[in-house]
Amino acid sequence: MAGNRIEDLLDAVTLSGAQLRRAVGRFEGGTADMLRSSVATAERAFAELDVCDEVIDAAGAHGEKAAERLRGMLEREAREEIAAELDALDEAAEGVWQALATSRLLNRVLGRGAGAGEEDNSGVEAPRLVEAVLPAVPSADHDEDDYDDLLAMAADREAEFLPKLETAHRERASQVAAHLVTVVRGAAKTGFADERFARGSLAEARAAHVLWLRCLAERRRDLGR
Asked: Which end of the chain is more exposed for a tag (fewer CB within 10 A), N or C?
């Protein structure tokens, strides 16, 4: 801290040293020492606020990259990698929320207005996806009276039903995968700083992962792959 800045502060203070000590509590030292300590404390607080902002920015960048990685993992059907990526996102978000709590405390100490994360959550809800809105899986049921023999029925199933079944399973899994990537990217855009929205988005990503796995299991049941 430059000497002239301390002197400027001293000139601006109209209280005596004894009055200052009574105002701020017990402090062993003169007025200049008291001001120097206060300024040093403020500087440390501002430095910590910068660190909090860096945590949020880094988490947002991590989330954006994670969304792209998840897209590739879903295309490859890399089940275990997806679970690990979601775990890493949860960890990054927790770091942001801890940084926001620190930021709120420091801003109050500094007597500042709302800082990062101090404002109310936006109130925006994370988008939801339920299985009921996915394309229906076609049924293989037929009226056997419509066929002269079982070979004709099997030929019809092979020619008409299986392509429809494959398409339905592909579209179901694709829609769920796209939704998972969308909710992760949405949370990352705020650096996970909108805690309510981020928590909802990450929970929805987990739910989408479970639904996606179920889609794959149903495809394997119906198509053998």
From this structure: C
> Rounded to whole angstroms, what are the CA distances from 101 to 75, 81, 148, 203?
37, 31, 73, 21
SS3 state at 90: helix
- The span from the CA of 56 to the CA of 120, in Å, is 17
Identify whether 21 is part of a domain: no
User: 77: phi > 0 → left, psi -120 to 50 → alpha, else beta; which?
Assistant: left
Residue pLDDT tens, the chain, 225 long: 444 544 544 444 444 445 444 444 554 555 566 566 666 666 777 788 888 889 999 999 999 999 999 999 999 999 999 999 999 999 999 999 999 988 888 878 777 765 544 454 677 889 999 999 999 998 765 544 554 555 665 666 667 788 899 999 999 999 999 999 999 999 999 899 999 999 999 999 999 999 999 999 999 999 998
- The one-letter code for the residue type at 84 is A
- Residue 10 covered by a domain: no
Residue 163 has what DSSP assignment? H
Instruction: Please give the DSSP secondary-structure letter assigned to residue 113.
Output: -
Query: Residue 98: helix, strand or coil by DSSP?
Result: helix
Q: Please name the residue that has the structure tokens 């809105």.
A: 133
Q: Given the structure tokens 């770091």, which residue do they identify?
A: 95
Q: Is residue 6 part of a domain?
A: no
Please give the residue range of the domain that contains residue 107.
46-223
Amino acid at 147: Y
Predicted structure pTM score: 0.73
